[in-house]
Amino acid sequence: MRHIGEHGFERATIRGIAETAGVSPGLVRHHFGSKQALREACDEHLVKTMLRLHDEVGNRPLGTLNPVAVMGPYRHYLARALAEGWAAPIFDEMVRIGERWYAEADRDRPDPPDVDPKSRAAVSAAMALSLTVLARHVERGMGVDLDSPQGQDKLLRALLDVHSHPILTPEQAAAARAALDAGPTS
Prior knowledge:
With 186 residues, the chain is mainly α. The chain has a domain of 98 residues. It contains eleven helices and no strands. The N and C termini lie far apart (49 Å). This is TetR/AcrR family transcriptional regulator. InterPro entries: DNA-bd_HTH_TetR-type_CS (IPR023772), Homeodomain-like_sf (IPR009057), HTH-type_TetR-like_transc_reg (IPR050109), HTH_TetR (IPR001647).
C-alpha cells in the first residue's frame, strides 16, 4: 500500500512493490497473481480496517479512539485511490456506514431531514475523504503536521467543533429551505 500510495497504481511495478515490502517479486506474484489483484486485496484490507474502526468508534467513549491515527498508514494510498479514480469500493463502504449512522440519528431528530440518509452519507463521505486528498493544504492551513500527535489532536478538535456547532441558525436554515422550495431564481 505504501508503494502504490507513493508512486500511483500505474507507475507502481511488482518489483517496486516487492522491494518496498522487503520481499521478492515472485512472492508478490505467488500471493496475488497480478498487480490488479494486489490492489483489490489492498482495497479489501482498507475496507475491513474502516469497518473495524466504525465498530470501535461505536463501542468506545468519544475521544478515546483517534481515527486519524488509525487511518494514517493508509492515507497516501487512499489519496492516490481517490485522485486516480479507483476508490469506488472504499467510498461506497463509507456511504453504507454513514447511511446507517444517519438513519439511526434521524430517529432522534426533532425535524424531518430534507434528503434521505444515503444522500447525506455520500456528501459526508466526500467531505471526510477530502481531508485525505487535501492533507498538505489542511496542514498548511492549520499550521501542524497531521501525522503528529499535536496535528491529530488539533484536527479531531476542529472536526468536533465543526460538527457540534451549526453555522446556520434554525431561522437561516428555514429561510434557505424556503428559497430552495420556491425554485431557482435568475
